[in-house]
Amino acid sequence: MNGGPAALVIGATGTTGSRLTALLTAAGHPVKAASRRAAPVAGAEPVAFDWSDPATHTTALDGVDRLYLVPPPGDPDPAAVMLPFLRLARAAGVRRAVLLSSSAIPEGGPAVGLVHRALPGLFDQWAVLRPSWFMQNFTGTHAHADGIRAHGGIWSATDAGRVGFVDADDIAAVAFHALTDEHAPNTDLVLTGPETLSYDSVAGIIGEVTGQPVTHHRLSYEQMRDRLAAQIPQEFAALLAAMDRAIAEGSEDRVTDAVHRMTGRPARSFRDHVERGRDIG
């Protein structure tokens, strides 16, 4: 393992953080793997970290010169806790920060968009990753994946809207380069797969690959909101249903070459992702 300062990966047991930590440790980079319970992570130093507990922040930053930032989940105002932490990080000697945002949230936009806007003023070396919807939504522990396994169905208010779904492995690979390349991107990067797909197409591909028919059930915004509200708070349900409606209106119908530019290899296709057997069926 290389000596010197470590990378602090916040959310090191999560979807992108776990993959990034594995890439960093495999390449010999020292890593502090941050999670609420300081869960053991192979090759890394586990450290307790909770956005809502500032007492964990100073210890997590000890010996760190770069950060991978996953915002507190479900927090409508993450800047309130993230910006004080980032100022603390800068004072502690952190030089580079890579923030996970979303293709749906522009600089200065709601929620983490405010952190995006502040980042260049805090660090000379930075990047904001703005991935499209994760392919893992259909193959992991997401509600869509659960619906596919239990009922052979996907329910959405996306109508025929298309999305440039991206593999979390590709997001992690971009994050690895953004953290470790000699020169930081110093920009935001919209990350997509190589094509846009409707949810009808997603259902068709999963059915073809697995041999188990999958149906996309097209719901109205109101139907989707009410379906989600049976399991999550009404306000969050309305937000997620509104994101589906935006997809129906074309908000995510785009493809970028950012994965290829950052990693030197093409972004993985959804069919390839499903064929690799990512926990479907």
Explain this structure to me?
- By secondary structure, the protein is of the alpha/beta class.
- The chain is built from eleven helices and eleven strands.
- It has helices at residues 15-26, 57-61, 79-91, 113-122, 143-151, 168-180, 199-210, 221-229, 234-248, 258-263, 270-275, and strands at residues 6-10, 31-35, 45-48, 64-69, 96-100, 125-131, 153-156, 162-163, 188-191, 197-198, 215-218.
- The strands form three sheets. Strands 3-2-1-4-5-6-9 form a seven-stranded parallel β-sheet, with helices on both faces.
- Helix 8 (221-229) runs antiparallel to helix 9 (234-248).
- The longest helix has 15 residues, at 234-248.
List keywords for this structure.
281 residues, alpha/beta, two-stranded parallel ribbon
Structural topology:
Blueprint: E1 6-10, H1 15-26, E2 31-35, E3 45-48, H2 57-61, E4 64-69, H3 79-91, E5 96-100, H4 113-122, E6 125-131, H5 143-151, E7 153-156, E8 162-163, H6 168-180, E9 188-191, E10 197-198, H7 199-210, E11 215-218, H8 221-229, H9 234-248, H10 258-263, H11 270-275
Parallel strand pairs: 1-2, 1-4, 2-3, 4-5, 5-6, 6-9, 7-11
Antiparallel strand pairs: 8-10
Outline type: globular
The unreliable regions are none
Strand order of the largest sheet: 3-2-1-4-5-6-9
The first-to-last residue Cα distance is: 39 Å
Mean pLDDT: 95
- Could you tell me the radius of gyration in angstroms? 19 Å
| Category from helices, strands and their pairing | alpha/beta
Biggest beta-sheet profile: 7 strands, parallel
Number of strands: 11
Strand content: 15-25%
Oligomer: single chain
